[in-house]
Specification:
Helices cover 6% and strands 33% of the residues. The chain has one domain. With 93 residues, it is mainly beta. The chain binds zinc ion.
């Protein structure tokens, strides 16, 4: 069975997670900012605390927090690696 999530004690408690994307396939580091109460006061496009303000995703081979090599990479075509994107949701609606 393929492991599709990496968790370690060095990872931040929230906002950052490592995920194996089957479609690419690649390990992806996702960093997201969730709306707080003060964000809602400043930005009236936001509705709920916890809404994602922005999300950055990038391909990784190792966990940047513990340095462990992520599993299942032997059979992956790494020429497609290096993908990254940033989505800003704070100006929607
Ligand atoms: Zn780790």
């Amino acid at each position: 069975m393929m492991i599709n999530e990496h968790k370690c004690t060095s990872l931040p408690k929230s906002g950052v997670y490592l995920h194996f994307d089957d479609e690419v396939p690649a390990w992806t580091l996702n960093i997201q900012k969730e709306a707080t109460e003060s964000d809602l006061e400043e930005n009236h496009n936001l509705e709920n605390i916890g809404d994602t303000l922005w999300l950055t995703s990038l391909n990784i081979l190792y966990c940047p927090y513990c340095g462990e090599q992520l599993p299942g990479l032997e059979s992956i075509d790494k020429t497609n690696y290096g993908y990254f994107q940033h989505n800003d949701f704070s100006r929607w609606n």
